[in-house]
Design goal:
The protein is of the alpha+beta class. It has a single domain, classed as Deoxyribonuclease I, Chain A, CATH 3.60.10. The protein is built from seven helices and 14 strands. The strands form three sheets. It has a six-stranded mixed beta sheet. Helix 4 packs parallel to helix 6. The longest helix is centred in the middle third of the chain and has 19 residues. The termini are close together. The model has no long low-confidence stretch (mean pLDDT 98).
Length: 275
């Protein structure tokens, strides 16, 4: 099976805006469509609490006529139009859908950050992990989130094998970002966040990219938009992942980035796996 995950950074903009960046986003969507994956996971959809509008659904139906759509949006008292996730899956698939709450701090459970699809033999779950924030003002809450999320994945793994994806907002190792020295202690590369990821892996999960590609460097999933040359110079971070239960690791065929052209921010990531 073939799966793709992408932090789209505003589904509304990608579908309805005429900006240069929106055009680039639609080019990325076209690339994803050509890959013909069974399931597409989108993070940071930034939709209203009621989800996609009628116009959004019409455009999505036109782009993805063979897919069902489920979403999870941020609801009050969490911020409006914030975070959010969405799955598109082939209509031939019949998963059970859930929207997990993991007893996270603050409003994190209300921010539409997780969706889980349950199939007969496996779970497929996606996450948009909270950022530690400017000045690391959300780092303590983020640490609690990491613990709760790891426990959630482990609880699924006790029942059947797990495939987990999303923007986890952490570069695990120094080889996962271009400039580790100058970014040490920054959000996404604190010792606490890196240890949180290590703890997750130690609960029985495999980082599929590293399993396939070893210690290769220079391959990233995100380039900051504030520096216009970040992607040109490949000053990136690998913060988007496909994880699988350890006992599924030998079933992974591909785990790689999909070229998003000149568009900065996140690039889609692909997993091919025998199930």
């Amino acid at each position: 099976m073939k799966f793709i995950s992408w932090n789209i950074d505003s589904l509304n903009a990608a579908l309805t805006s005429d900006s240069e960046r929106a055009v680039l986003s639609r080019d990325v969507l076209a690339t994803i469509i050509k890959c013909d994956p069974e399931i597409i996971a989108l993070q940071e959809t930034k939709l209203a609490s009621t989800g996609p509008t009628k116009k959004h659904l019409e455009i999505l139906e036109e782009l993805f006529p063979d897919y069902e759509i489920v979403w999870n949006s941020s609801v009050e008292p969490a911020r409006r139009g914030y975070a959010g996730t969405m799955f598109l899956y082939k209509k031939s698939l019949k998963p059970s859908v859930s929207f997990p709450a993991i007893d996270a701090p603050s409003t994190m459970d209300l921010e539409g950050r997780m969706i889980t699809l349950e199939f007969d033999d496996f779970y497929l779950t996606q996450v948009y992990t909270p950022n530690a924030g400017d000045g690391l003002n959300r780092l303590k809450d983020r640490q609690i989130w990491d613990e709760k999320y790891a426990d959630y994945l482990a609880s699924l793994d006790e029942q059947k094998v797990v495939i987990a994806t999303g923007d986890l907002n952490v570069a695990h190792k120094e080889i996962d970002l271009a400039n580790p020295d100058s970014n040490r202690g920054s959000a996404g590369f604190t010792d606490e966040e890196r240890q949180g990821f290590t703890n997750l892996i130690e609960k029985g999960f495999t980082d599929t990219f590293r399993r396939i590609h070893g210690d290769v460097t220079g391959m990233y999933t995100w380039w900051g938009q504030r520096v216009k040359t970040s992607k040109i110079n490949n000053s990136g971070w690998r913060i988007d992942y496909w994880l699988v239960s350890d006992r599924l690791a030998d079933k992974v065929i591909k785990s790689e980035m999909i070229d998003s052209g000149p568009r900065q921010d996140h690039t889609p990531i692909l997993l091919e796996i025998i199930l």
